[in-house]
Amino acid sequence: MSNSTDVFVIGGGPAGSTFANLAARRGFSVAMCEKDEHPRFHIGESLLPMNLPILEQLGVLDRVERIGVPKLGADFTMSNSGDEALTYLFDRSLGDNPDHAFEVRRSEFDQLLFEASREAGVDARERTRVSDVTRLDDGTHRITTIDSDGVEQSWSARFVVDASGRDTFMSASRGWKSRNPKHASAAVYAHFRGVERRPGENEGNISIYWFEQGWIWMIPLRDDVMSVGAVCYPDYVRTRRGSLETFLLSTLNGIDEARERMLTAELASEVQATGNYSYLSSRMSGPGFLMIGDAYTFIDPVFSSGVYLAMTSAASGIDVAEAWLSGGGLRYKLACRRHERYMRRGISAFSWFIYRFSTPAMRFLMSNPHNRLGIVDGVVSMLAGDVFNNGSVRRRLSLFKAIYAVAWLGSFRDSLAARRRKRESVQQSAHGAA
Ligand SMILES: Cc1cc2nc3c(=O)[nH]c(=O)nc-3n(C[C@H](O)[C@H](O)[C@H](O)COP(=O)(O)OP(=O)(O)OC[C@H]3O[C@@H](n4cnc5c(N)ncnc54)[C@H](O)[C@@H]3O)c2cc1C
């Protein structure tokens, strides 16, 4: 038997649930299949302030407030330097953006978004994996799904959205996916109890520690749990001989400031790793389909932009689906072009900072901020996720880039060495698994 729907969404993570919810609210029939069952663990727990308007649009902001820890900003520390952590608070971002975000357990957050899509009228199914998507001559797509009992079903959809995350269902199977030639990193992470939090209102802030081989995150979650992870050059991760746990603990032990906060810490989950995860797809859309969130690209978690970009690509992509469903043609082409340009603008604003995050010049500028001409306010706005439309943010980020160029030249030898180190790491990771 074949089910028929206007929109079919592959994957029920933040991107898929957002798209499905908004498409149903526009009156389309929507089916979404998720291969796992919620609640399930997922990494990516720190949200950005600019996420909040989307959560409001989905009608779930109050529920996220209940499960989340308020996050007023981010602090950065150069490890083993003896320097104080430097805190960037979102309340100084430009415009009237929200002055806070939330840290969330993704098991709870993703479940909540998935359920909200059901409430909006989506036929949302769990434990159901998409195994094939084929475009038919009449322009529709035939989708095959398999549930956990092994039962196959066939679907007919007028528009398909790939929100399958790192599985990259469409781009991997169609040969559109490639490694990011400019970036490579791998991560090892776990939950701990008993990690010291920042004092007072800042207790929910994310902490970032630069170290020789990469950087560390600490994300405070509810019930005294702290998500702690090390994002490293893949060649450093390949030096691991013992267990992941030993590797993570010895990495953390080498960082004075992290060790001090973890004196009474106990592991509260298994330690997990994600190999080199930086990739892109050569296509974002095509006749009757769109890729959103990590299914299209993922660069690096350093600015906690993943969930925000995933949900933004879903919210912006609705117009693409609508243009196709109301006849396609030129209107569809224009909608695709508008959406792709919009998404690329945001992604490239984050990428510029991500690619340079571990350079001596960036460490220096982020640790010694001077707010001449509101440049720091512009950087804070970027940290809050305001990277799409705000001209005054873009102007300040351009000024920051000019200052960065001067700082890069000022630390010429170290900068060149860092560039060489990164290039080697990217090349090595292209020739072997991280
Ligand atoms: C180490 C690390 C740390 C990170 N930290 C942060 C952070 O602090 N903040 C942040 O915002 N982001 C972070 N991210 C990024 C974040 O995890 C992702 O960007 C985000 O989850 C993307 O959402 P998505 O909906 O596109 O994909 P996902 O959340 O991965 O959802 C995709 C869903 O599709 C399902 N699926 C896959 N294939 C199929 C199939 N064939 N059929 C049916 N279902 C399928 C999967 O089971 C999954 O539930 C981090 C990433 C990494 C690797």
Would you kindly provide a written description of the structure presented here, covering whatever features stand out?
Helices cover 39% and strands 24% of the residues. It starts with a strand and ends with a helix. The strands form four sheets. Strands 1, 2, 7, 8, 9, 10, 19 and 20 form an eight-stranded mixed beta sheet that branches. Strands 4, 5, 12, 13, 14, 15, 16 and 17 form an eight-stranded mixed beta sheet that branches. The mean pLDDT is 94. The longest helix has 28 residues. The relative contact order is 0.16. With 434 residues, the protein is α+β, with helices and mostly antiparallel strands. The protein is built from 14 helices and 20 strands. It binds flavin-adenine dinucleotide. Flavin-adenine dinucleotide binds next to α1, β8, β12 and α9.
